[in-house]
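In this section we walk through a basic example: taking a raw amino acid sequence and producing a predicted 3D structure, encoded as discrete structure tokens. The instruction is simple. Fold the sequence below.
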Amino acid sequence: MIKEVNRACGKLNEKLGISVTLPNPKKKTRKVTSVCNFVVGAGLVAAGIICSSKWCAILGGIGIMSCAVLRQESGDEKEEQ
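The resulting token sequence is shown next.
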């Protein structure tokens, strides 16, 4: 997914005549980010439940979903190599 977004942005950059390169995070970086997203997301969900705060629980859910997407992205790289 990251590679597809970078390709699409690269094509847009060419059409607009600008030179912006986007980083390609390494597998280890994605794993660390995934763990951080899970920890923060779980903490926000717990805080949302304890404090009866809907926005906190929603943000925590988004963080956990982000963790799942990053994990899947890291797993897809194994198949490509």
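Looking at the output, two observations stand out. The longest helix spans residues 54-80. Residues 45 and 73 are 23 Å apart (CA to CA). In the next section we compare this with other chains.
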